[in-house]
Amino acid sequence: MSGTKKIAVLTGGGDCPGLNAVIRAVTKSAINVYGMEVIGFLDGFKGMVEKDYIPLTLETVSGIAHTGGTILGSSNRDNPFRYLTVEDEQEVFTDQSDRAIENMRELGIQGLIVIGGDGSLHIAQEFYEKGIKVVGVPKTIDNDLSATDVTFGFHTAVDTATEALDRLHTTAESHHRIMILEVMGRYAGWIALHAGMAGGADVILIPEIPYQVDRVVEQVKHRYEKGKKFSIIVVAEGAREVDGEMVVKQMVPQSHDPIRLGGAGEKLAQQLEKSAGMETRVTVLGHLQRGGAPIPYDRILSTRYGVAAVEAFARGAYGTMVSLRGSDIVAVPIIDAIEKLKNVDPDSDIVRAAKAVGMSFGD
Ligand code: F6P
User: Fold this and answer.
1) What pLDDT band is residue 328 in, cutting at 50, 70 and 90?
2) 11, 70, 186: which to mutate for ligand 1, most atoms within 8 A of CB?
3) pLDDT digit string (tens) for 30-77?
4) Which residue's CA is the nearest one to ligand 1's atom 16?
5) Atom of ligand 1 at shortest distance to CA of 185?
6) 36 HSE (CA, 13 A, CB side)
7) 161 close to ligand 1 (CB < 6 Angstrom)
8) Does 332 contact ligand 1 (Cβ within 6 A)?
9) For residue 250, how far is its CA from the centre of ligand 1 (angstroms)?
10) Distance 17 CA to ligand 1 centre (A)
11) How far is the CA of 16 from the centre of ligand 1 (A)?
12) 17, 81, 91, 258: which has the fewest C-beta neighbours closer than 10 Å?
C-alpha cells in the first residue's frame, strides 16, 4: 500500500442536524489538507461489522452542509460489542468487535472518526481500548455530553422547539387554554430550558428540578387572576414530580440505553385539568427536533468539529473527542465526555435568570 492514509467515518445513534456538515468537513479536509482517502461506513457501527461502506470523495460530499439527516445512515441499536446475531435460529447478542476490526484491516483503514453521542462514544472508547485509532465528534440534540460546552445539533433543536412555542402562544391566547409542549432531551433539560426561555414559557419543567403539581397550578392561576387566561408550559420528556419517576414510553433492548421516554406532557395535562380546571392541550414535538436543516450556528460548529477531528487524527491525538471550550475547539479524552452526563445546574445563572423574569420550574 502507498503512504496515503485512509480513514473511515461513521454516524452513530439518533440522527441530528449538522451530521452532513461534519461528514463534508471530515472528507474535504482529509483530502485537501492531508491527501488522505476517506470511506464512510453505512448505518453507524452496523456498516463496520457488515463491511458496508461507500467511498467519500469531494464529489460525494458536495452541497450537503445545509441538509438534514446523514448521507451515511445511522442506527442507535447496533453495538459491535453486543451485536444481534442469529445462531441456531435463535436471536442472541454476540461480540462482533473483532470482526469489525478485521474489516478495517482488510480495507487498509488506519483511523476511525465516530460522530456520535453518549452511546456511540462509549463504543468508540471500547474500540480505542482495543487499539483502534479513534477520534470522536460530539453529536446530540440533547446537549448532554460532558467535556464540551455544546454538541452540534442542539441549537437547531432549540430553534425548532422555540418556533413551536411561538405558534402555541397565539392559539393558547385565542382559546384561553393551557398549552403544554413536550420536548426531547433524555435525562437532561437543556432543550426545554433554552426553548422555554427563548419562547417565553410560563412554566419550564426539567429532570434536574423535580416539580410539584401544586406549584404549577399556582403559577397558572396567578396568571389567570392577572388577566392572562392562558399559559404555556414546556416539559422535558425526562421531567418528573418530586418523589416521582420519569415516564417511560417504550424499551428498545438492542440500544445502548434501552429506555425511550415519553408521556410526561400528557401526564401533566391530566393533573392540571383536574387541579386547575382549565382546558389543556398537549403537543409532543418528537422527531421534528431531529429532522431538517441545521441552523447556521450548527453548520459552522459542525464544519469546525469535522476539520478539528481530522487534525486530531493527523497529530496522533487518538482516543480524543473534539470539543468546544469557550470559543476554541480543543481535543479532550473521550472518557471525560462519557463518564457522566452533563445536566442543567439548578443554581446556574440561566435558571436564575428565568426565575427572575417570572418563569416557574414547579419547585
Ligand atoms: O438522544 C436523542 C434523542 O432524540 C432523545 O432526545 C430521545 O429521547 C431519543 O433520542 C429518541 O430515540 P428514538 O429515535 O429511538 O425514538
Assistant:
1) very high
2) 186
3) 999 999 999 999 999 999 999 999 999 999 999 999 999 999 999 988
4) 260
5) 6
6) 25
7) no
8) no
9) 11
10) 13
11) 10
12) 91
- Looking at the chain, which runs of residues are DSSP E strands? 6-11, 37-41, 53-56, 83-87, 90-94, 111-116, 134-138, 178-183, 203-205, 231-236, 248-251, 259-261, 280-284, 320-325, 328-333
Residue 133 pLDDT more than 80?
yes
The DSSP bridge partners found for residue 306 are none
Q: If you average pLDDT over residues 343-349, what whole number do you get?
A: 98
CB atoms within 10 A of CB 294: 27
Q: Which helix (H) or strand (E) holds 164?
A: helix 154-175
- Please name the residue that has the C-alpha cell 396568571: 223
Query: pTM higher than 0.85, yes or no?
Result: yes
Over 90: is that where the pLDDT of 87 sits?
Answer: no
- For residue 14 and ligand 1, the question of a CB distance below 6 A is answered with yes
Residue 297 DSSP class? H
Backbone angles phi, psi at 57, to 5 degrees: -125, 175
Nearest Cα to Cα of residue 351 among 170, 197, 186: 197
Rounded (5°) CA angle 247-281-15: 55
CB 162 within 8 A of CB 197: no
- Report the nearest atom of ligand 1 relative to the CA of 286: 4
Instruction: Domains for the chain: give ranges and CATH numbers.
Output: 6-152+294-338 (3.40.50.450), 155-291 (3.40.50.460)
Q: Report the distance separating Cα 14 and Cα 154, nearest Å.
A: 13
CA distance 134 to 14: 20
Exposure class string for 254-271: b at 16+ Cβ within 10 A, else e: ebbeeeebbbbbbbbbeb
Q: Is residue 261 lining ligand 1, measured as CB closer than 6 Å? A: yes
Residues designated catalytic = 142
Residue 44 in contact with ligand 1 by CB distance below 6 A:
no
Cβ of 207 closer than 6 Å to ligand 1, yes or no, is no
Exposed, middle or buried, 253 (CB in 10 Å: 0-12/13-18/19+)? exposed
